[in-house]
Amino acid sequence: MKVHYECLSCMITQAQKASELATKDIKKRREAMLNVAQLVGKYYREESIPAIDASLLFLEIYKLLNNDDPFKNYKEVSNSLAKRVVEDLKMTLHIDLKTALKLAIAGNLIDFAVGYDPQKIEGDIISLLNENLYIDHSDELFSALNNASVLLYLTDNCGEIYFDKLFLEKIKKEYPQLEIYIAAKDGAIINDATIEDLKEAGLQEVGKLISTGSRIVGAPLEYANEEFKRIFERADVVIAKGQGNFEVLSELKDDRIFFLLKAKCAPVARELNVPQGSMLCTRL
Amino acid sequence: MKVHYECLSCMITQAQKASELATKDIKKRREAMLNVAQLVGKYYREESIPAIDASLLFLEIYKLLNNDDPFKNYKEVSNSLAKRVVEDLKMTLHIDLKTALKLAIAGNLIDFAVGYDPQKIEGDIISLLNENLYIDHSDELFSALNNASVLLYLTDNCGEIYFDKLFLEKIKKEYPQLEIYIAAKDGAIINDATIEDLKEAGLQEVGKLISTGSRIVGAPLEYANEEFKRIFERADVVIAKGQGNFEVLSELKDDRIFFLLKAKCAPVARELNVPQGSMLCTRL
Q: Which InterPro entries does this one have (chains A, B) (predicted)?
């Protein structure tokens, strides 16, 4: 997906958010934003892909701000909140494979929810479970998993990874033949999960953890390491979570990829031709 | 006031808003925003003044969008709504000079209120009247007006001008010796009032209408015409409405100027050292 007209203001707003989280010093924030104004023309061009180009911009800002992980605290809060919510849901719901898939999509909303009451989040998630997926290719996904040897699972945000773990537990049980690889970013970028976050959440219990080889959102192959590229090639099925992975990997037109996401923003919804806010499990 | 760290995202968001209002064509909006990304580094620099530099950026976008007045409809709605609200308030309230001053400040919120129920706006305005001004130099203003021969009144937004008219009627009655000049922009820029808007609202009944000589928000003297500069120099008192006029004219440190505004955004509130949302009548 190439940048839409709304992506510029979103990039700038997120850059501002990063500068606010990185420092309380108003002068440093201003210096960072003065630099953003000079840099942004490089990253918002005709052919820019929002997740990739915004990541490159953010990494420049992190250097300017002298803070390599402005979202550190935000991510910790998301993780502990999601962990608790998933534990509670496991006790109160009967969770089958399809429910776990929907939870993995609904779990994507947790990055909005820092500071919320966990019980309110649980309520929101349960009401999302009652919604239908706007595009539902889950039968195709499950049939593909049935015939597959290798699954590559691309994670998205902190918090959400606890929902991914739940889904992967069900997948592992249902398709025991699968060799499962779970990928996360090679280092901190906005609130995306890193390999360290996956370890902390115990994802190694359900698959082999691998790095995408870069800190760029959306696992672009041109920034990946050799191991990731090899596994991406070997995979029979790829499950790609969230908007960032969609923005980058939709460019490949690769029918092994199933995108599981909530179309949070207008550009992604427009690209997919679905109403904003829709939950989707879609093969392009 | 020089740009604060939040001004970049605000400039971009307003540019996006202008492109949305200017055309329904997604491709044209995208083309405009691609240009904004290349241009913004020129207008968000160390010494930039938000109202001036954002105006210069917007005028470039208007050209790109081939629409010289994207806010035309928005302004018309604001004007007719404000006109009605002021007529109603005149019938229901006893309005003295001080109340009219507060209404002129409260009227600044009307640009948020397009599409709102007029009765809800009236309620909001009446509750604003019950708030104290956070900085209140109105006694100094009235005493200065008492001793003045020439008043220059700098308007701000459409809609709000109907509240300005009410305030100016009271000033004219209270200080009949005053020669009153009322300035507006020389052409369309965001939702600011133009000379045409002032005529439409009948402001010529309470003073002589003059152009600031440019379409730049905030009446910067370096963009003004000779007539405006002459009257600005002759004025004994200047009443400057809204954030834009504050951003530009606060640079002059000129104690003839009284700023009447609601500190809507964090940067203006920070600059004035007041809580965001405060209503002010202040001489610097």
A: ARMT-1-like_metal-bd_sf (IPR036075), ARMT1-like_metal-bd (IPR002791), DCN_phosphatase_I (IPR053636), PH1575-like (IPR014444)
